[in-house]
What does this fold into?
Amino acid sequence: MRKTEKLKLNMPDRSDNYNVEDFNTNFELLDKAITEDKSFLIEKVLRELIVSLKVDNWHPVNGMWQQTLTLSDIKATDNPIVFSTLSETSLYQNIKAYNKNFSYLYAAKTTDGSITFYAIKKPTITFSVGLKGV
It folds into this structure.
């Protein structure tokens, strides 16, 4: 009897008799694979990172600004949601400065091991952002 490459499911030959145990084993393997895959995806979707964008690390590129951070856990296939890290107890002047600088961000692109943030204006403060789904 042959086995599938990835899940090692039983693949009876045409000359083999039907075997209920082979059939049940296949379904147990499928059930386990689906459960493990879901757990991984749920964990990844819920995972959050907080990163700091330093005021002095922005570089001009074609009239815009960009900053690249090295993050060993990030992959090129990640497509994180960037979110504000302000808390409900932030002071008014901090909220105002944060929101102004956060609003300059217009994109983030991942590669294996790094993320690059793009801004329409150079931020004037160091501030943190959250990344969800990495």
Observations:
- The helical segments are 20-46, 92-102.
